[in-house]
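Q: I'm writing up a methods section and want to include an example of the input and output format. Could you take the sequence below and give the corresponding predicted structure tokens, formatted cleanly so I can copy it straight into the document?
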Amino acid sequence: MLQAVKNAFLLPDLRRKIVFTLLILVIYRAASQIPVPGVDKEVLNQFLNSGSSGADILQFLDLLSGGVLGQFSVLATGVYPYITASIILQLLTPMIPALEELSKEGEQGQKKMNQYTHWLTVPLAALQAYGQVVIIQQSIPGIISNFGFRANPLGTTAIIISMTAGSLFAVWLGELISEQGIGNGVSIIIFGGIVAQMPGRIWQMVQLQQYLLLIVFSVITLITILGIVVISEGQRRIPVQYGKRVRGNKVYGGQSSHVPLRINSAGVIPLIFAQSILIFPSSIGSFLSTSSSAGLASAANFIVEWFSPRAGAWPYWITYFLMVAAFTFFYTDIIFKQQHLADSLQKQGGFVPGLRPGRATETYLNEVMRRITFVGAVFLGVIAILPWITQLLPGLDAGANTTGTLLITSTGLLIVVQVALDTMKQLESQLLMRNYEGFIK
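A: Here is the clean output for your methods example:
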């Protein structure tokens, strides 16, 4: 692998792409230091490290923003609005005939879909910016002075516009990486933010002299990475035979191939879906816990206690596991049906041995996909509740919050490994085009 890295830097065009990607990441990290006007960053940092249920919610939003919410900068919303817009359009495509037809129009259709995604990103970024500020302000009173359209309409509008512009700027940087750098730009942005947080957590354990804890978490992290790589690269290969076609004096087809069906086709999307939904009960409960009604406050405290990501809150973790598994099946089924593999094989003259082309092949592929997705769903569920499992181990702090129990959060670790694999594959393809040995053998 070290030789492959050396070969990548020896090639001028690949070296330019790698340096360009690193330069964009530096620009993104520098822009993340630009604060939103009127924010008391010291109070925010103290709250994020407090371990409260509200802090857990903000820690999750900090993960999705690429690690910049802790700075409460103009990039606090990160690229998450763009990801949300992409997911919404993916789910709406099979439901709206016009979008489904547009998705089949090749490159021009894809450009139009990307344009719709960008349009949808703008209102979603504005809504998320307002929501983040409201959550933080209610969780940490006084962190932003005079926020609200009644109290300060111009200041509130300026904050929302600056954070929306920051989100669009982050998306633009990601697209620059996709076009002129290496890897998927949006994923690289999140990757950089997550990895940038890791040295700080290691240094914090060293300062507290928690060396045994650091070793245990390092071993757990390495084992988890190995499992993610195995499942991410695992696939079921369906044999495909292409019939012979005679055109003039030439014979086409007659070859054997396969269709790779991945065990984990959904990636990290189910974890984001489930965690996004599960933060609402605890956030609503934290807002209502200060109610003047004793009964309402008691019910709100019960919700916060049982639906916060803590070691003793087993209803949260069981619900989280089940929701991740359900979303894995749901998302994989939608994306797989959009590919129309059976129709594509039939048009190309291919067939699965022993099956008639068309509906029989489609039914068989769907059944196989659902069976192997079960393994992926269980694995993603285990990854999701990994912080809870580590908290239950003897000798570990059972009161630690979700983000403090691992060097990288389980969701973040899944993102990091998958982005790293995707980037290495792209570099490998570039090297193999030039007769160099790639990263993955």
